[in-house]
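Notes, Module 5: Reading structure tokens.

Key idea: the token line is not a picture. It is a compressed description, and you learn to read it the same way you learned to read a sequence, by spotting repeated patterns. We will look at two proteins. The first is printed below with its tokens.
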Amino acid sequence: MRKMIMDDGFQAYLTEGADFVGEPGIPSLLDLNNTETPRSLIAFDKCKSAENHRQYVHFYIHDYRFYSLLSSTRRYLDILKMFDGVISPDPTILIGQSRCLQETNTYFNRAIGFFLQKNGIPVIPNVRWGDESTFDFAFLGIPKHQIVSISSHGCVMGDISTKNKVRECFCKGLPIMLNELEPEKVIVYGTMPDNVFGPYLSKVHFVRFASEIENYHAKKEDKINGQRNI
């Protein structure tokens, strides 16, 4: 029978020995300071076939593409140990979603990150928030003054005057995250428009990595330009 995520109490073994913080009981990541700025990033669903292991594995992909990690984390340890490190999983937090589901997705972000750390894998905390109602738990369990990672993909495009709720929530949460965690460095997966990130560029060191969509369009444009020059 197919193993489901609730079959063993939502993988209770993930948080054995962890400290839990806040009203929802979010597991705390270990304060190890053993991460570094990634040389490059690779999506979880591509790491099995990767030849280059000098990368950090990320989960900025559709949730169904890493569900197997959430339900069977142990079986991926040997694969993930081959890489420089991992950015903790990014289960979706939807605006307007039930709070208990938002807290659950935050829980799994930290629980899996903690378990990977215990097994010797360097983990950069992924930080994900939703609307203002998530700000009291979205940053729990992440040590201060470390490298953290966020994704702006699908969050910050469009005119700043546009009434885009996702963009609005991202922009409201960004300074709160920076104030709460005081990160040494912020990895950004996706675009960094000046009208969103500009006010913070002199205060925090950001390191941007293009998303898969950006890379796809860049390669497509290069191909078109190459054909024009023939």
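Here is the second protein, with the sequence above and the tokens below, as before.
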Amino acid sequence: MILGIGVDTIEIERFALWHTYSQKKLSRIFSPQEIEYCLQQLHKSAERFAARFAAREALFKALSYTQPNHSLPFLTLCSRISIAKMNSRPYIVINNDIGIDLSGIVFHLSLSHSCTHATAFIVIERQIF
């Protein structure tokens, strides 16, 4: 059963200088693993930061549908999740408790970008056994 969906599109240009930000500033939003990945290839850093930021926005929107009475501040959510890749597929890692029962919950994530925009789409699903 689908519990929530979220989508976000963001301009990559907004992230053009993020590779110059301090580790401390970046770590307010991204995990150390994400920062390392985004900075591996500086010519791709803006699109990588943008896609991961869009994923956080999309997740925030999807969670607001699943938990309308639970308010989780956006920056708190940012600090508790990470976007990782396995076999070229992105997925969400919940690093800390976000105050929501996640048993039986699956997050489906898709990231995409063009030359100018990055988009993230998330579906939150409860698996029924």
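Summary for the second protein:
- The beta strands are 2-11, 81-86, 89-94, 105-113, 117-126.
- The chain has a mean pLDDT of 91.
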